[in-house]
Specification:
10 helices, five-stranded mixed beta sheet, seven-stranded antiparallel beta sheet, Nucleotidyltransferase, domain 5
């Protein structure tokens, strides 16, 4: 890929008719059924015959599946192939986790709420844009809300069902970079819970705690679901309300991350952050909810993409001892998590703990940059 371009995905809301919505749900159901059938076939072949099936074995069986089950002829061929690729990727990740000594997590059968999308892997082959209309093979022309012009070369089209309706995500390659004016400034950021992030200049970004604020309402929605009888229409309505409430919190968090990342990219040419292992940190049950509510990983991913799109630089540095080491003289000053102020007994530096950590993050990034090679 050209260094002056990036890969970008445009997500838009779809407005299908009731008939088109039923067709979309039917295709999604058949894709999920195919995934489960293919997974069962792989497990049976291995357990009974010690035969390992891969994507190519199962893709060659698709014509026989369509002959035996004519309803699968109504689904675009490449959509069915992508279902099998998704299963192949699940197995590849499973074996990778075994090699790396992680908890394996075998591929599992997908329930109704665990398979929410299907993909057209080649734009123009079954799915294409025509102005404000998305034309889908065997489904029809569906209006969409195009928020901004699509740049680059469209590659794949993903149709996804969410709590409030249907969405399309169009992945584009070679999207041109739009560099922002250089400011000559650089900073380090320390992610935290007392404040969402602290900058090297002492500025703090406070956490809006969207989940914490919505927790009481989410609890009431969950109790409403628990009171309803399984399989009833009232329970289905309660489940939709609960899903929409969680989606609203996720949208609020994502909007906050986009806004703050855009501010940082406009203000600084180089941004350094700690390469935190969030998956390990959430194992602390006292902090897991607050860490998940902050969404550090999502924010850093958004920041990295916005920086690349604007011609700016984002650097990850090792997080070890950034809070303990003095930013003034470099001596280690041991302190527990409850101690929020850094006071160095050697050089007399006194400042907030997260401000001290942000200065250390910036220093590490500068050392990496000056290192030869």
């Amino acid at each position: 890929m050209d260094p002056q371009s990036v890969r970008k995905t445009y997500k838009c809301r779809l407005y299908p008719t009731p008939e088109q919505e039923r067709v979309l749900e039917t295709i999604l159901w058949r894709c999920r059924a195919l995934y489960n059938i293919a997974l069962e076939e792989r497990k049976t072949a291995w357990e009974r015959c010690s035969v390992w099936l891969n994507y190519y074995h199962q893709a060659n069986e698709l014509p026989d599946l369509k002959a035996a089950c004519p309803e699968y002829r109504e689904v675009h061929a490449q959509v069915l192939q992508d279902v099998l690729r998704r299963l192949e990727k699940s197995y590849q990740n499973f074996f990778r986790r075994i090699r790396e000594g992680e908890k394996p997590g075998r591929p599992r059968f997908k329930g109704r709420n665990r398979y929410r999308s299907f993909i057209y892997p080649q734009y123009g082959n079954g799915a294409a844009l025509d102005g404000g209309i998305l034309a889908l093979s065997r489904i029809g022309r569906i209006p969409l809300k195009l928020h901004r012009p699509i740049e680059g070369t469209p590659k794949t089209v993903t149709i996804r069902q969410e709590a409030d309706g249907w969405y399309v995500a169009i992945s584009c390659a070679d999207v041109p970079v739009h560099p922002l004016r250089a400011t000559g400034q650089e900073t380090g950021i320390d992610m935290g819970l007392e404040s969402f992030a602290a900058l090297a200049n002492g500025q703090r970004i406070f956490t809006p705690s969207h989940y914490r604020k919505a927790e009481a309402y989410l609890r009431r929605c969950a109790r409403r679901v628990a009171r309803r009888h399984k399989g009833s229409l009232r329970r289905a309505k309660a489940v939709v309300l609960l899903a929409k409430a969680h989606q609203h919190v996720a949208n609020q968090r994502r909007d906050f991350h986009h806004r703050e990342a855009a501010k940082l990219v406009r203000a600084y040419d180089s941004i350094a952050y700690e390469d935190l292992q969030t998956a390990n940190m959430v194992k602390n049950h006292y902090l897991a909810k607050s860490i998940s509510d902050a969404g550090w990983s999502q924010c850093l991913n958004i920041l990295t993409f916005k920086a690349a799109s604007a011609g700016k630089r984002v650097v990850a540095v090792p997080p070890a001892y950034t809070s303990q080491r003095c930013s003034g003289c470099g001596v280690l000053v041991q302190k527990g998590l409850s101690v929020r102020w850094h006071a160095c007994p050697d050089c007399g530096v006194s400042l907030r703990r997260d401000h001290n950590a942000a200065l250390n993050v910036l220093r590490l990034a500068q050392q990496q940059r000056s290192r030869p090679g």
